[in-house]
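Final report, Chapter 2: Outcomes

The project's central promise was a pipeline that accepts a single protein chain and returns its three-dimensional structure in a standardized token representation, suitable for archiving and comparison. That pipeline is now operational. To close this chapter, we reproduce one record exactly as it appears in the project archive, with the input sequence first and the structure output second.
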Amino acid sequence: MSTKLMGKLPLLVDSLTDNAKSALGKRLVSAGRRFQSTGQYGQGELQRIAKAMITSGKLLTASQISAANSEERKKEARVLKFGELQVELTPEKAYIGAAIGFAFGILSWQLSQGIQSIPESSMEYANDNALLLAKSLRGALLALFYSSTFLSAFATVGLVLLGGQLKSKENIVKD
């Protein structure tokens, strides 16, 4: 029974996709290791079966990984998905995003400086409750705009680094 099954293995392997071949190879290696760990019984049949399973599993996995890596390098495109919207990441788009983040950071910084330049002594309101509300709103706006500035700075740096990384990968693929 097992010899008939092993005789049909080459036909089965030819009909599988690359991912399925890799998965089958991993499963063969895993099952072979289990056979190997059972120890030696009789004349070592289990050990020979384990060795054959591990060898064939490694061959299936290794051949598919090398083929998959060469295909991935050719058509590797990072895509961000936001529901229905899909955006392909390119170095140019990353740099444009960094420029937009930088502009937004400058705008946030200028707004926070403008709010901070208003002296508290110039705030005159009808009662103390209105003054406390104005001071707390001023503090909340300052916190919001400063945090927006720092988040924009981090996003800008991250997008510049991402653009550089994508550009270097693009150059490697072209070579």
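Archive annotation: The mean pLDDT is 81.
This record, like all others produced under the grant, will remain available to the consortium after the project formally closes.
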